[in-house]
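Pilot study result, target chain (135 residues):
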Amino acid sequence: MQHTLFYRITIGKSFLLLVRYDHSKIDQYQCLIGRHKKLKRPKPWKNLEPITRAQVKRMRDEFWDTAPHYGGQKEIWDALRAASEADIGLARAIVDSAGVIVTSEDLSTCYDERGAKYELPKYVLSEPTNILKDN
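Predicted structure:
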């Protein structure tokens, strides 16, 4: 049986150290260092071909429907979805209350308190530059 522990150490308001200790390997530590960064909306992205809002919505729905099956906790995925759809101030409150460790300014890379990594594609975080108007 493998025993892995994660220790979350917060220093001040803006610095975080997440230490992983693996009992199966003597004295093996891994540190993930992050700052509680001010969140920013990611830069708009460009799809290979012009895309409609309905197509972007389908892509997002498909991502959120399948994301929990690739690891991590469903509650964290739900919090990340709510944060990605909220304004910046509310998004910060959502990830903080869920215990999400944000290591990128745009929410694209996050960790939970157990050390699971969550990666969000740009298409769930912002709108494309070449969006077509729906008829």
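One observation from the pilot: DSSP finds four helices and eight strands in the chain. A full batch analysis is planned for the follow-on phase.
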